[in-house]
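sorry for the late reply, my laptop died twice this morning and i had to redo everyting from scratch. anyway the thing you sent over, i finally got around to it. pasting the sequence first so we're on the same page, its 77 residues, then the predicted structure underneath. double check i copied it right bc i was rushing
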Amino acid sequence: MGLSVPQIILIIAVVVLIFGPKRIPQLGKSIGEAIRGFKKGLEDKDSSAANMEAKGENSSSDIGFKKEEPTRSKENS
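ok and here's the structure:
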């Protein structure tokens, strides 16, 4: 169920018509930078989570807030 050669050629032709041949390299560069930034962000998150686990810190469940019971106001309705 992948893309066949005619479908790929059609997609490329539509992209060239929409963006023009001069902007395609800029778009490719932008997409590549975005993917690299996303991967770097994932790696940073994984390494910081591993560091927190090594230190014994709980990153997700204990964020420093106290749980309080809800209070009801005493109004005559």
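The two ends are 64 Å apart (CA to CA).
thats about all i looked at so far, will dig more tmrw
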